[in-house]
Design goal:
This protein is of the alpha/beta class. It contains 6 helices and 6 strands. A 4-stranded mixed sheet has the order 3-2-1-4, with helices on one face. A two-stranded parallel ribbon has the order 5-6. The radius of gyration is 16 Å and the shape is globular. The N and C termini lie far apart (46 Å). The mean pLDDT is 93.
């Protein structure tokens, strides 16, 4: 079992917990205030084994830099090594297709994503895969929407989804 590094960073959508293993970025957690952070670290330690080490350098320095660039509007593709060990089977297949096939500034329907992985009619299963995405933002589940134009669900909350889609130019900027 390997240890993993973690840190919490500020972002345009609030604090994010980032965690990385030797393989790459393994987890992104939205709204990472102290209770969310502590719960997420406990779950990660149980699933990954090893000892978590807080560090904003080492394995996390590049993900932090690229996230800063994304929120500044100067990066459209993260291009980071990812550790897919927290997902498997159909969910991993869907998330990999999402990561490689739905670029910045575009959206895809749940049903279309199901078709792309050879499972037409599995739109609800795609929704479940989005809900279990261990790497939201970097594996852009915010780009998956309903076929009728609705936003669909989002683990980070619909306001966060709206803000990410506005950042990418898919939706108009929200009026605050």
């Amino acid at each position: 079992m390997n240890s993993f590094e973690w840190t919490v960073v500020g972002s345009g959508i609030g604090p994010l917990l980032l965690a990385a293993t030797e393989e790459g970025l393994v987890s992104v957690v939205f709204h990472a205030d102290a209770p969310v952070r502590d719960r997420a670290l406990g779950q990660l330690a149980a699933r990954l084994g090893g000892d978590p080490a807080e560090s904003a350098s080492g394995r996390l320095s590049e993900p932090i830099r690229r996230l800063d660039e994304y929120f500044a509007g100067t990066r459209r593709d993260f291009g980071l090594p990812l550790d897919w060990s927290l997902t498997s089977g159909f969910n991993r297949q869907v998330l990999r297709e999402l990561a490689s096939g739905v670029p910045y500034g575009t959206v895809v329907g749940y049903g279309e994503l199901a078709e792309r992985v050879g499972q037409p009619g599995a739109a609800q299963a795609v929704g479940a895969a989005m809900g279990s995405n261990p790497l939201p933002l970097v594996v852009p589940c915010h780009r998956v929407v309903e076929s009728d134009g609705g936003l669909g669900g989002f683990g980070g909350g619909l306001e966060t989804k709206r803000r990410l889609l506005a950042l990418e130019g898919v939706l108009p900027e929200p009026l605050f």
